Amino acid sequence: MPKTLRKQIRAVREEMRSRPPGLRAHVERVLEEALDLADRHDADRERVELATVGHDLFRAHAPAKLLKLAKEAGILVSEWDERSPVMLHGPLAAVVLRERFGVDDDEVLAAVRDHTTGSPEMPLIARIILVADKIERRKRKRAPQLPDIRRLARRDLDTAMLCWADYKWVEERERGWDSYPAHWEARVRWVAEHHADIGLPPRTDDFPDELGLATGL
Ligand SMILES: [Fe+2]
Ligand SMILES: [Fe+2]
């Protein structure tokens, strides 16, 4: 492992020692899943580890503190974030990792920034962190859909993300919650890519006339 990466992981882990034990335990459970996915999808374990240990640096901060820190860090705070400051914990962690811990790996930073909602374009590390964060052991026990999404993620990360987005959509509708715009934007792209990927069957009028399959006959 490159020396800088090792030092960064150590420094972020050291910072996490001041965070609540429950949060630290969550990060370790996410790491277990993330490393497993890294091996299966051929991602760099150390970069995945750095993103994982840093992803929830600010997850336990109080809403008012998060808002204040995010504004001080120059993050664009939307009215949605004002209402749910917890949504800022990823973007804030990404800024702090870059500025205080010297992380300049754009894919690691994107993984940290977008781990809560996802985004339309996600590098492999970001997709791994997002999924690992949702399927860790404790969360899996609370929702019967998550073990299936975990199994799927081992084979196909993109479809697993889409299934997770569907699960989340149903949960939001059932509970009367709104869909966070950044997540919705990501979801729309994932759905479009999935449809493009599986390929729709041709329309009837796409067939040549001589096959006798044209419309209007
Ligand atoms: Fe988080
Ligand atoms: Fe997390």
Describe this structure as you would to a colleague.
It is a single chain. This protein has 217 residues and is an all-alpha fold. It has one domain: Hypothetical protein af1432 (Orthogonal Bundle), CATH 1.10.3210.10. It has twelve helices and no strands. Helix 6 packs antiparallel against helix 7 (106-113) and helix 7 (106-113) runs parallel beside helix 8. The chain is globular. It binds fe (ii) ion (2 copies). The site of one fe (ii) ion has 5 residues, from helix 2.
Provide tags for this entry.
Hypothetical protein af1432, mainly alpha, disordered C terminus, 217 residues
SSE inventory with pairings:
Blueprint lengths: L2 H14 L4 H20 L4 H10 L8 H10 L6 H5 L5 H11 L6 H8 L10 H12 L1 H6 L2 H11 L1 H19 L5 H18 L19
Helix pairs in contact: 1-3, 2-3, 2-8, 3-7, 3-8, 6-7, 7-8, 8-10, 8-11, 10-11, 11-12
Weakly predicted, low-confidence segments: 211-217
User: How confident is the prediction overall: mean pLDDT?
Assistant: 92
Number of domains: 1
What's the number of extended β-strand segments? 0
Give the topology string: H per helix, E per strand. HHHHHHHHHHHH
Number of helices: 12
How far from one another are the termini? 67 Å
CATH architecture: Orthogonal Bundle
Strand content: under 5%
Radius of gyration of CA atoms, rounded to a whole number: 20 Å
- Bound small-molecule species: fe (ii) ion
Q: Helical residue percent?
A: 55-70%
Counting helices, strands and paired strands, the structural category is: mainly alpha
CATH top level is: Mainly Alpha
Write the CATH fold name: Hypothetical protein af1432
- The CATH superfamily is identified as Hypothetical protein af1432
What is the approximate shape? globular
Main sheet attributes: strand count, strand direction, barrel closure:
none
